[in-house]
Amino acid sequence: MSNYLSTFFISLFAVSMILAVAYLLGVTSFSFAWALNFMLMTSVSSLMQTFKPKLTATYYNGKDWERDGKVYSWLGVNIFRKLLVWVGWEKLHKAANPVKKDLQALKKLEYNTRQSEFGT
After folding, report:
1. For 63-82, what is each residue's pLDDT tens digit?
2. Which among 34, 62, 105, 110 counts the fewest CB atoms within 10 Å?
């Protein structure tokens, strides 16, 4: 019951913030677009952390065309990866989320990756 109650209040807060920004600044402002995006991301993230769905859809299985990585290298993923290392994102991410060498840590990393792909 507490999961549903917290979900209700999180959703109520998000809608209230969106309506407040819309009323104060108008729906055509950049601030409204930013607040809408941020509140929707926060709401979905909170819902995902509250209910922790299994995320077992076939979407997460690797497809034949993406297994060798040619499409991703053509799109510039390797350049983006080097950019993340250059700006220090990888070091910060690994410091905040260290990966231990055990099965539970790898399962948690996989679930967090699926959560990120889901949209949070």
Report:
1. 888 888 888 889 999 999 99
2. 62
Asked whether the beta carbons of 79 and 32 are under 8 A apart, the reply is: no
pTM of the model: 0.62
> What is the distance in angstroms between the CA of the first residue and the CA of the last residue of the chain?
23
Beta strands per DSSP E along 6-100: none
Domain ranges of the chain: 1-52, 55-120
Buried b (16+ CB within 10 A) or exposed e, 28-53: eeeebeebbeebeeebbebbbeeeee
Phi and psi torsions of 29, nearest 5°: -90, 155
